[in-house]
């Protein structure tokens, strides 16, 4: 579905990704693992078109999206939940969701469906996003991305700093999306969450993919975690 | 005439200044708020508004019709020119905060000198479409209780009232645009987080071009409104730019309500101090206010401290 082939990308003169390749398949959770600075978030931003590619291709169902202007990428059906949530802090919950809906001109029933997944947001529609609790903010960031009815969902550390009940709520939603056939790319630090939910794990180091393993293999060979993550 | 009527006269003159200043500063504040661009050429868009008002009004045959034609057409022309400047200059320097300052200084001189070459160094007026003198009453406590009387010299023209009213209507419209419409939502999202806005399909560069055009259009509208009171001159942008910066710094960069409050404060103090003391003292006080704000509340009256 989403194919990243040999991309080079970085910030200005600083190259971060060096010939990185990976594939994200529908109905699967692909997890990016790596130490801090390995290039996980940079990969996400490169897919979203927020960083220019100096080499390589990114295709979504065969269409080359790697050279599109950044605002065209989400319109192809890629929902992005950035690290640190990146909500529009001074806008209300309803306005944040409205921006998600506007991305692909989603019909109104999409909003009802999203609020059905996160009923707590429905009670807070008029509240400014910055006044929500951390868990509610993460729900809103997720809900905003789901307003696109995405074919591919990119989640960058969705459980960072959340209490266990919130983590579980987010996890349930991700698993439900997977069962609906959404292709999911996940960056996550908490290994237990990854090992229980992911289908495939991609280890990256210095902006390159070192190894790709099925989650089943990984449970059989825990020494891989030690080698790439030091845990 | 006693003190009261004088004060009222000065306050009314100040309100006209405040109205024009609020329009202009709102444009400057919008451009800075959304694009983080300090537009040094903003005063020249105001000047172009005034100069083109003279040109367009002349072409349309002068009189009330000429003024209305200028009022409608000139902000659109200047807005389109600003969009062209955005796409050809500001976009090319990547909207970098420092480089856009230098770039807009360049635009300032280009606009000013082209106007000098084409329009000349003269100050030229445009006739107001209507200009009746309206005498205003004052309350007097006589033997039989309070009564109204019309002091000699206490008056305002209908055109000045129109300027105040037009500014109120346009600013209310701007407020509705920013808070109640989709395009306003898109502009605010771009202002709050440019990168995330792009990740949700907002064409940020098109929003920037629109905002730059809108900001310049507001300055041009202020220019058109002022020509029947002050004449159009190719150097008139300088003072207006300075006052707009003062207003925007006091109000808080990027805050529309703050801009309005500061425009009223500066406009009224300018009117009142100019009448009772001297215009120079008015400028001194305005500059002093900026200094005090920068020392004690650097984010401005309504601005938010950076988090």
Give a written overview of the molecule.
The complex is a heterodimer of chains A (231) and B (307). Chain A has 231 residues and is an alpha/beta fold. Chain A has two domains: 2-77 and 150-229, 3-Layer(aba) Sandwich (Rossmann fold); 86-149, no CATH class. Chain A is built from ten helices and ten strands. Chain A is globular. Chain B has 307 residues and is mainly alpha-helical. Chain B has a single domain (3-296), classed as Orthogonal Bundle (ABC transporter involved in vitamin B12 uptake, BtuC), CATH 1.10.3470. In chain B, helix 9 crosses helix 10. Chain B is globular. The chains are: A alpha/beta (231), B mainly alpha (307). Chains A and B meet through helix 2 and helix 3 of A and helix 6 and helix 7 of B.
Topology:
The complex is a heterodimer of chains A (231) and B (307).
Chain A lengths: L1 E10 L2 E11 L4 E5 L6 H8 L5 E8 L2 E2 L7 H4 L2 E4 L11 H11 L4 H10 L1 H4 L11 H13 L5 E5 L7 H16 L3 E5 L3 H7 L2 E6 L2 E7 H6 L2 H7 L2
Parallel strand pairs in A: 3-8, 3-9, 6-7, 7-8
Antiparallel strand pairs in A: 1-2, 1-4, 4-5, 9-10
Helix pairs in contact in A: 3-6
Chain B lengths: L2 H33 L6 H18 L3 H28 L6 H23 L13 E3 L2 E5 L2 E5 L5 E3 H23 L1 H11 L1 H6 L4 H23 L10 H15 L4 H21 L2 H18 L11
Antiparallel strand pairs in B: 1-4, 2-3
């Amino acid at each position: 579905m989403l194919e990243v082939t040999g991309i080079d990308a970085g910030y200005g003169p600083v190259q971060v990704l060096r010939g990185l390749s990976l594939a994200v398949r529908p109905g699967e959770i692909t997890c990016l693992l790596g130490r801090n600075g390995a290039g996980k978030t940079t990969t996400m931003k490169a897919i979203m078109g927020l960083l220019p590619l100096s080499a390589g291709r990114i295709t979504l169902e065969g269409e080359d999206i790697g050279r599109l202007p950044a605002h065209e990428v989400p319109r192809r059906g890629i929902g992005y939940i950035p690290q640190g949530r990146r909500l529009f802090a001074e806008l209300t919950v309803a306005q944040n969701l409205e921006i998600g809906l506007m991305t692909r001109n989603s019909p109104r029933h999409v909003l009802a469906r999203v609020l059905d997944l996160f009923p707590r947001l429905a009670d807070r529609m008029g509240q400014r996003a910055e006044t929500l609790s951390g868990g509610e903010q993460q729900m809103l960031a997720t809900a905003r991305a789901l307003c696109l009815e995405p074919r591919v969902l990119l989640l960058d550390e969705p459980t960072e700093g959340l209490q266990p009940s919130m983590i579980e709520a987010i996890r349930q939603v991700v698993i439900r999306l997977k069962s609906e056939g959404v292709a999911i790319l996940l960056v996550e630090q908490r290994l237990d969450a990854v090992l229980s939910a992911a289908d495939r794990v991609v280890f990256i180091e210095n902006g390159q993919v070192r190894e790709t393993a099925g989650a089943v293999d990984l449970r059989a060979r825990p020494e891989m975690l030690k080698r790439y993550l030091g845990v | 005439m006693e003190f009261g009527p004088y004060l009222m006269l000065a306050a009314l003159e100040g309100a006209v200044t405040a109205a024009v200043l609020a329009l202009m500063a709102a444009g400057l504040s919008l451009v800075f708020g959304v694009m983080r661009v300090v537009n040094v050429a903003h005063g020249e868009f105001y000047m172009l508004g005034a100069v083109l008002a003279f040109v367009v009004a002349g072409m349309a045959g002068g009189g009330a019709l000429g003024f209305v034609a200028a009022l409608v057409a000139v902000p659109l022309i200047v807005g389109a020119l600003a969009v062209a400047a955005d796409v050809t200059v500001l976009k090319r320097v990547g909207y970098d905060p420092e480089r856009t300052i230098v770039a807009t200084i360049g635009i300032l001189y280009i606009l000013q000198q082209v106007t000098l070459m084409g329009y000349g160094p003269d100050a030229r007026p445009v006739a107001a479409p209507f200009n009746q003198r309206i005498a205003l009453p004052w309350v007097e406590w006589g033997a039989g209780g309070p009564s109204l009387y019309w002091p000699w010299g206490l008056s305002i023209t209908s055109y000045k009232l129109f300027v105040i009213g037009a500014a109120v209507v346009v600013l209310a419209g701007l407020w509705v645009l920013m808070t109640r419409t989709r395009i306003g939502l898109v502009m605010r999202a771009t202002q709050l987080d440019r990168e995330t806005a792009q990740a949700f399909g907002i064409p940020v560069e098109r929003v920037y071009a629109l905002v730059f055009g809108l900001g310049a259009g507001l300055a041009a509208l202020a220019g058109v409104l002022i020509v029947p009171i002050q004449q159009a001159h190719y150097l008139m942008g300088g003072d207006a730019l300075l006052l707009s910066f003062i207003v925007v710094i006091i109000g808080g960069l990027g805050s529309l309500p703050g801009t309005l409050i500061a425009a009223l404060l500066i406009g009224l103090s300018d009117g009142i101090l100019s009448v009772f003391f001297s215009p120079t003292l008015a400028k001194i006080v305005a500059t002093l206010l900026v200094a005090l704000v920068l020392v004690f509340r650097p984010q401005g009256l309504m601005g938010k401290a950076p988090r």
